[in-house]
Amino acid sequence: MISARFLPLLAGTLLAAAAPAVAATTPSVTELAAPAAKAASATRIDPTFWWVGMKNPKLQLLVHSPGIASSTASLKTYEGVTLDGVQKLESPNYLLLNLTISPTAKPGKLQLEFKGAKKMTYAYELRQRTTPGDKQKVQGLNQQDFIYFLMPDRFSNGEPKNDYIPDMRAPKVARDSMYSRHGGDLKGIENHFDYFKSLGATAIWMTPVVENDMPKASYHGYALTDYYNTDRRYGTLEEYRQFVDKAHRNGLKVVHDVVLNHMGSKNYLFLDQPAKDWFNQWPSFTRSNYNSSALNDPYGSELDRKLYNRGWFDTTMPDVNQSNPLVATYLIQNFLWWVEYTGLDAYRIDTYPYSDPKFLMQWGQALNEEFPNLFKFGEAWVGSTAQQAFFARNIFQPVDGFKSNLESVFDFQSQGAIHDALRGDQPNMNRVYEALQGDWMYEDATRNVTFLDNHDMSRFYSVIGEDFAKYKLGVAWLLTTRGIPQLYYGTEVLMKNFSNPDGKVREDFPGGFAGDKTNYFTAAGRTGQAGEAFTYLSTLANYRKTHPVVATGKLMQFIPQDGVYTYFRYNDQGQTVMVMLNGNKDEKTVDGTRFAERTAGFTSGTEVATGATLSDLKSFKIPGRTAWVVELKK
């Protein structure tokens, strides 16, 4: 999700989902004699369970049950676990329990007792932590990965039984409506693991799979209504855990999409607020100003900073007050919980800069301490390279105490540059060159995630006028420049359309649903240019996968001349790949002696996509609108 100019797309697309706890993971609650006691199902505790062996021994439990604040809470003796204190909140329906779990504690069930108007016992489960010893879990991402990004609801329907969930606010599918549920699910994605691998992808990023039980446009996923559950229309909590395991066994990593800044207005925490200061409150609805410049503007106003960080993203998205330490702890524990429970490999953080800066540092540090291999990359849709670098690990001095500890951000600057370079008749390859020139500001810009488009913007193929030659230029750049490439679903088969006015950039993947006339999942179904596009992209992606020099090698770029941009990926083992992008309509003659510092010692080259041989490295005649990816030979 994004800045103000993209709100028209969101207006029709704002979110929903839902899913109750699965029986295997639901703590047992036993009501004792009490005339006014509510049903056991009315009591919940977040986190829903926890683990022994976590590095941080502290655990904050949020108890939600009607009238629970009038009761006293105690913990039956459990070796290695102490109840340090109980805290009431503004709402009579909440209690906070603060525990310490020592390294000597064993797995089991804590017996929590509540006495008073509300009398009950609650069996809270402590599990054995497994992540540190399991190398298949929390693998992280690196430059050798290639991320395939999809929207679960729009990709493939593998389990029709979850298409209709009667007790949810948007229970039915309606594929004829762009803003309704279409029925895609985890099983549908799992059915196509082989498709991802044939494409050359190594990781799957899905828009949020957490519960999103909103009445309108719930397919989007970014207005979560339960921090501790998946959306049943995608699959159960346990099925998601199994999904991650199966992906790992198939050589695929899983990126979990998260929202720190806001939640959905149907979240129980907003419908029954623990306290007013759990949310950023205004006298009347107040939007964010969507301008992160206020955060580090040395001449900026406090009003602009407040509007940016504390203004709401949208009417249905309550802005969470992360400066409240209780809220901060609740959120941090939740995102630790998902990693330990599922073994996911990376977090993609939605609207990253909108969160409280000090909280972002605290959140990142907590995750780094418990899961040092976890990779985290944030959406920072900002207007300059410097501002983008501000939200990743960088060389800057702290600003108002904030210095980002985030490994990576989406590279919106290079994405905008490749669009600018290819959308018109006159190529401006200097924009692409300059987008990387600012990499000196990052601690390590090679961790940045590069991309051509996503679910919040017009599709790349439409932006470049459905010009197939330009498409290949863009794909060649994506798969050979520095960083971790991300591909939006359908780009490999030339899916098109613009983000406004109808949001058709989120159409269903052809072949993922019963009755589809076209099936792009099969080679036979990818006829014409869709097949050519898939072959071209998969050829380069799989070459990148088997030739690490393209992914992890050093990069040297030469200032573009006459609309031709040339750069090299090379390593200390003497492997070198030359990439030459001619954005002009016409053939260009390129003086190869200019590249002698990288071509010295090589006598020829092989163009990866076509197999053609380049026998002269001193002069090149590159056709118009052509991308060369050339493996140099000695």
From TrEMBL:
Alphabetized InterPro entries for the sequence: Cyc-maltodext_N (IPR015171), Cyclo-malto-dextrinase_C (IPR019492), GH (IPR017853), GH13_cat_dom (IPR006047), Glyco_hydro_b (IPR013780), Ig-like_fold (IPR013783), Ig_E-set (IPR014756)
Keyword list, A-Z: Glycosidase, Hydrolase, Signal
Keyword Signal: yes
Biological process annotations from GO: carbohydrate metabolic process
Gene Ontology MF terms in the entry: hydrolase activity, acting on glycosyl bonds
Organism: Hymenobacter fodinae
Pfam families associated with the record: Alpha-amylase, Cyc-maltodext_C, Cyc-maltodext_N
Signal peptide: 1-23
Protein name in the entry: Alpha-amylase
Residues annotated as domain Glycosyl hydrolase family 13 catalytic: 149-544
Protein's UniProt keywords contain NADP: no
Classification via Gene3D superfamilies: Glycosidases, Golgi alpha-mannosidase II, Immunoglobulins
SMART domains recorded: Aamy
